[in-house]
Amino acid sequence: MSSSHRRSLPLNWIIVATSLRFVVVQLDGTVVTARCNHEVSGERLPQYTVMPHTEALRKQLADFIDFGEAHATAESAMAELDIDLQGKRPTGLKHSPWEILEHIRITQHDILEFCRNSSYEEMKWPDDYWPRSAAPPSDDSWRKSVAHFETDRNALRAIAKDKSTHLFATIPHGTGQTYLRELLVAQDHLSYHVGQLVAVRQLLGAWHVAKK
């Protein structure tokens, strides 16, 4: 959405997620969805439709966790990779595919635990967020990591859909973070590292295997 369109929104609205479809949330919790699909004098202008309270936001968040309309999906980036390449660091880059995959899984699990576990204990950065070696410890480690990632992603999706979860409420054991913030951080972090994983696979000559 262009800066002119952002300025045209009421001051008490905030943009929660952006793409060809995006969600705007008024500060009182009322949700408005918009889609830039109406052209006037060559400009793409948003059309607004008021939706019931947070239901539209919950649906958008749940969809956003699986979002793949504007970039490669996590599934394609995490597709099976030759064992000899899983622990290989391309020249000039700091991390192997295995390191990136495990970092994605570990970080997502950490966010999930922060959201649902009142006894959550903060991990140490960066030591606890990255695997100890560039290569996986066993031949089936890649598959297990992906499976754990998918399980945790489903749990995050469930939090987004759960009507008993007040998305704008602060997490009791946190320091001001809301459930909405954590869900967005989880997807933002995933998107960044999916792009990184795709780039590493390209440099290793293994991205064509994953493309759909």
First and last CA, distance: 28 Å
The shape, in one word, is: globular
Total number of helical segments?
A: 8
CATH topology of the largest domain: Four Helix Bundle (Hemerythrin (Met), subunit A)
CATH class of the largest domain: Mainly Alpha
Helix content: 40-55%
Main sheet characteristics: 4 strands, antiparallel
> Hey, roughly how much beta strand do the residues contain?
5-15%
Strand order of the largest sheet: 1-2-3-4
Number of strands: 4
SS class: alpha+beta
Query: Order of helices and strands, N to C?
Result: HEEEEHHHHHHH
The CATH homologous superfamily of the largest domain corresponds to: dinb family like domain
Tally of distinct domains: 2
Mean pLDDT: 81
Provide the CATH architecture of the largest domain.
Up-down Bundle
Radius of gyration: 19 Å
Please mark out the parts with pLDDT under 50 across 5 or more consecutive residues, or reply none.
Answer: 1-51
What would you say this structure looks like, in words?
- This protein has helices at residues 3-8, 55-65, 74-77, 83-86, 97-116, 141-161, 179-203, 207-210, and strands at residues 13-17, 21-26, 31-40, 43-51.
- It has 212 residues and is of the alpha+beta class.
- The protein has a 4-stranded antiparallel beta sheet with strand order 1-2-3-4, covered by helices on one side.
- Strand 1 and strand 2 form a beta hairpin.
- The longest helix has 25 residues, at 179-203.
- It is globular.
